[in-house]
Design goal:
alpha+beta, four-stranded antiparallel beta sheet, about 10% strand
């Protein structure tokens, strides 16, 4: 219920934009194009956190978002110069099937995973969405489909 009434492409677009810079910075540090990783801190409402969790880890089962919830995306470098990425939600690492159900993904696995779940640079579907006309009655349809949710936000 927390992720309604946002359409799937809107959630994917918003989260893609939010994670674009951190993912780019992780790649740049791994490639040696940047010497220091960045620390970024964002603040969000529970609905935004729920949408992020659902987009990054669709199989994660939750019914609510705890107060002061947090999501970390961390990059680690091994002595062999390999880079690993981990996503942690409220202190618990996500495991991804695409990363052999491990708590960390190689940079290559992580990039592949994010390419599947987010709009990344050069994504043709993103270009199509951006070039498409914006439906003017979209908000009206959302209000009709989820009137109790819409009213909840007004109260």
């Amino acid at each position: 219920a927390l992720t309604l009434p946002f359409p799937e492409y809107a959630k994917k677009l918003w989260i893609s934009k939010m994670y674009e810079k951190p993912i780019e910075e992780i790649k740049n540090v791994a490639l040696g194009l940047k010497s220091k990783p960045q620390y970024r801190l964002y603040s969000a409402h529970d609905t935004q956190v729920a949408n992020i969790v659902q987009q990054l880890a669709p199989s994660y089962n939750f019914t609510y978002v705890k107060y002061a919830s947090n999501i970390y995306m961390m990059a680690y470098a091994s002595p062999e110069a390999d880079v690993f990425v981990q996503i942690i939600y409220n202190g618990v690492p996500f495991t991804f099937e695409e990363c052999n159900n491990d708590f960390v993904c190689t940079l290559e696995e992580f990039t592949q995973l994010m390419n599947e779940r987010l709009f990344m640079e050069g994504d043709q579907h993103l270009k199509e969405l951006c070039d498409a006309p914006v439906p003017t009655n979209n908000l009206v349809n959302i209000i009709k489909e989820f009137p109790e949710k819409f009213l909840q936000y007004l109260i």
